[in-house]
Write a structure and sequence with these properties.
8 helices; 229 residues; 86% helix; mainly alpha; single chain
Length: 229
Amino acid sequence: MKITTNIIAVSLQITERGNESIKIILAILLFCVATIALSKFNNSDLFRSITKSFFRFKLIENNFNDENRIGFGTSILLNINFILSLTICFFLAFTNFVYVNEALFYALCLSSYLIIIQQISFRLATLLSGEHMVSEEMGYLTKQIWHLGGLLLLIIGLIWSLNQQFTNSFSPFFLFTLLSLLAYRYIKGIFLCYKIGIKWYYLFLYLCTLEIMPTLLLYNLVLKDLVYF
């Protein structure tokens, strides 16, 4: 009887912690919604600008006078939304396999890893190749991916957090969305490097060594073991 009582007490504590974590998640997601609303206030054609910029295969110099170009302040808000939404989606994915504290640790580590890799890789490629256009173009491409990706991940996170009973369905969908964004980054990055006139061996160095290999290592060492994809 005592053992049963202890099990019930532990279950209630876990449930209570789960409810508290959901409240925190929803609060963070609402903050993300607020950043999007503020961005929309600063740019009335925000969603059109983000979508148009994402799918447009043009160099920066050809976009310089584009009326749909997103301002610095708005870009910062959209980047914050991407970072928070990405971390929340990672957290929701891992809570189905590990405890809350571990899920938070994994989520912070993985989101930090992706963000740091995407910020360092093209700068390192620029340093090695001496082609400064790589840094400018890939930096701009990264912003495009983050802006649209943040909106998609925010929508996924909001629906997911309110329907956690369908976590087994949301986890593969989240990973598919994330991997699609990464694949699009590689494809568009190849196109932009070709337009710039980057030599093939620098392109190979950038994509295989600094972009694709870290992503594959991340998937094989961590994601594959924790999420049924």
